[in-house]
Amino acid sequence: MIRLLIVAVVFLIIDIYAFQAVKTLFKSQWALWIYIMISVGVYGYFAYVFLNYDRSVGPNFKTLRAIGLFLLMFVPKVVLLLVMFGEDIVRLFVWGYNYLANNFLSGTSENYFPGRRLFLSKLALGLATIPFASLLYGIFKGKYNFKVLKYTLHYDDLPEAFDGFKLTQISDIHSGSFDSREEIEYAVDLINEQDTDVILFTGDIVNTKANEMDPWINTFKRIKMPQFGKYSVLGNHDYGEYVSWPNKEAKAANFEAIKGIHDKIDFKLLLNESQYLEKDGERIALVGVENWGKSFKKAGDLNKAISTISSNDFKILLSHDPSHWEYEVKSHKEQFHLTLSGHTHGLQFGIEIPGFFKWSPVQYVYKQWAGLYNEASQYLNVNRGFGFHAYPGRVGIWPEITVIELKKSTQNA
Is CB count within 10 Å lower at the N or C end of the chain? Predict the structure, then answer.
């Protein structure tokens, strides 16, 4: 109850400041009433959806729409708050200075508190349009703005036969969120265009339930079978942890059905196990673990997964959550040359200027959250995700198809 009260007070403060900006700029009562009705309507719809949220059903298009509308209304208001509150701090200092000057220095009793400046209200509203337009673009276009990111990694101990070996990684399909068959068909075509040696999927094929994938089986089955196959692992959403089930048997049946999806789309699911990829008498080991997350389900068993391979093998690890790399993989006695993860989605919101700047709020939760990382000759790639979840869009952090080429380092004499 106290938590809800605190949230309500925070929302009230934000809305008061936002209303002040609108009131300063628009003198018409109709404009103010329209603003109030839109705010009340959006917040009311959001509250209605989540107060009536059915945990046996889980997230659906209604919850995605509610979150999208809420963010479209709330985030711009936060921008208004920051500008208007900053102005209030200045106004308070001006008032304090005038009060002291008039009452103690000049001897007058004038007590003038400066009003809001129209310029700053205009500035605040102008700045607020930036996140509004960005979030709107993210909902209608950004979530399907697929990018192919390519990396070349060099290793001294890469088997000669695998020099130039290419892999495609996708992650976090979240099929239950899709709303455009044309866009997903385009993305599958984009995967096929890469024409790599192996395709690897790093978990979260659904939001919660296996039947979310039913309309998309044939679409993902169109991903061409490369020479060395298609492999996958599970993510935290694949265990049915985020909804209520009538009994343990129903949850277990859903989990088995989710595992069965991978076979239907011709992916070999690796469940704490390894698979050798062989070429010209040499081989590399593909290791796949179940989900292991610092803050999520820990079903992954790395030692079990590598029990059938050699310490000397070149190893590629599929592990959904990048916190696994941070807390267990990179300090493991065995070397994992390349780890492929996903999970974070880059929060589907951030700013990226390749080679110069990269920021997202998710970086305050995950040390490795998007892109390529290297420590002690061990690489980690955190894929930004294929699909989307919760917020039905993407801003600045675009859906990703990763292509990685492995190269043998040249030895200088």
Answer: C
